[in-house]
Write a structure and sequence with these properties.
Strand order of the largest sheet: 12-11-13-14-10-15-16-17-18
Distance between the termini: 65 Å
Helix content: 25-40%
Radius of gyration: 25 Å
Largest sheet: 9 strands, mixed
Length: about 425
């Protein structure tokens, strides 16, 4: 049965405001039976058909929220009760988890490529709590991040410009921020002739670039020996870029030993509460693994990491790059860009030393964007911009001309109607006077 056939019930809703959240209507299919052989996740499956959906958050059977374009909305659809929701989660955990434990109250699994589901069930929580992260490849672009105002145009330009420089970069932030999305966006900025490798510990990133070899480490988490052998082989290939999604603490020292030997082009995501916390975490991991002093480990970390990008959520739960900093050898950070009290990106006035290399690469980036007086800008979607897919291979130019002509005609007709209405209104007012 197709998704269209399953959209049978149209529910109307009223606006609910909890933290500035707007409630939306949803067409969905509700069933009391759960078929183990089915891959349909009823409400969740229906929601995931929306190409603009970023995440789904469920706090019990009657409280379902969605995130689209950085905004959170409550929807009117709900499950029959908490037991119904819990049973659905367990059925699907059983289907997608190889080591399924029916007594567990926590599950984390990939529902499909690019979609991860984590759930906490009673008795660990009072109600079933489900979080669905959508890592669809189409969302992960610098332009999309600009549209959501997660980054400014200037930050997007900066990130694009530093990709050819082979800097060592850490993307840090707490869980469920934009770390994986930003990493994927940077992957897409690599040049086609570059030799790049992606190591994905969670199998979240959908990589379609032929120039990037993709290693799925999710299947190797229990085979440490084989994993280490593969890492050694990867490093021996001397790739120009090494992307790592959600680096494991147990493996960091292996990679870092190559960084201190001069390897450049390392970009990884890591969970942390602040930029300093990220560097502190890496310092302690390396110290404990290599049995060296804390100061020696800290020196190595600060000398071999070039940039740290930190992402966090604001009060409205919007995820933004909150700072981009240069990691200095004197064990301090120099912020280049950050968010001000108005939640806008601004420049600190610090110009990175490697800007000379950007200029040598003839990349279109001006030194003005680092000026503290410079005002950052954001991408704004234009009216009717997405009405036509200009990337379609079989797009007929004549049809496109007719479309543009019709659009212009409709606009003119609307203006004429408005003028007639205004004329009638003025005549009526004159008669009354």
């Amino acid at each position: 049965m197709s998704l269209k056939d399953r959209l049978k019930t149209n529910t109307n809703s009223k606006t609910t405001n909890i933290i500035g959240i707007q409630e939306e209507t949803l067409e969905y299919y509700e069933t009391n039976e759960i078929d183990e052989n089915s891959i349909e996740f009823d409400i969740i499956d229906t929601l995931l058909a929306d190409d603009e959906l970023n995440s789904i958050q469920i706090y019990g059977a009657k409280n379902i929220y969605i995130e689209k374009k950085g905004k959170i909305s409550r929807i009117s659809a709900n499950y029959r009760d908490n037991i119904h929701l819990e049973n659905i989660v367990r059925k699907y955990a059983k289907k997608f988890l190889k080591d399924y434990d029916e007594l567990s109250s926590f599950y984390n699994f990939n529902y499909s490529k690019g979609v991860n589901i984590s759930a906490i069930l009673p008795p660990l929580s009072s109600v079933p709590v489900v979080y669905v992260k959508n890592f669809k490849n189409k969302f992960a672009t610098l332009q999309n991040l600009q549209e959501n105002q997660s980054i400014s145009k200037e930050i997007a330009l900066f990130l694009d410009a530093i990709m050819p420089l082979n800097l060592n970069i850490i993307i840090a932030g707490e869980k469920n921020t934009l770390k994986t999305t930003l990493l994927t966006s940077l992957i897409k900025q690599t040049q086609l002739n570059n030799r790049c490798i992606l190591i994905d510990y969670k199998n979240e990133i959908e990589n379609n670039m032929q120039s990037i070899a993709n290693y799925n480490f999710l299947e190797l988490n229990n085979n440490k020996k084989l994993k280490n052998e593969i890492i050694e082989q990867i490093i021996s290939l001397n790739p120009e870029r090494l992307f790592i999604n959600n680096i494991k603490e147990e493996d960091f020292n292996i990679f870092f030993n190559y960084l201190k030997d001069g390897f450049k082009g390392f970009i990884t995501t890591i969970n942390s509460k602040s930029p300093i916390d990220a560097l502190e975490k890496l310092t302690n991991i390396y110290k404990n693994k290599e049995n060296i002093t804390y100061e020696a480990s800290k020196d190595l970390i600060y000398n071999n990491i070039d940039i740290i990008i930190f992402i966090e959520k604001n009060g409205s739960q919007q995820r933004k790059v909150s700072s981009i900093s240069i990691v200095k050898n004197d064990k301090t950070l120099d912020g280049i860009f950050y968010l001000n009290e108005n939640n806008e990106h601004i420049s600190s006035g610090v110009m990175p030393e490697f800007f000379e290399n950007i200029e040598k690469s003839s990349l279109p980036i001006s030194v003005n964007i680092f000026d503290s007086e410079y005002k950052h800008t954001y991408y704004q979607t234009q009216k009717n911009e997405n009405l036509v897919d200009f990337n379609k291979k079989n797009l007929n130019p004549e049809i496109l001309k007719k479309f543009k002509k019709a659009l212009s005609k409709d606009f003119q007709t609307t203006e004429i109607k408005q003028e007639n209405q205004n004329t009638e209104l003025n005549e009526n007012q004159d008669e009354q006077n």
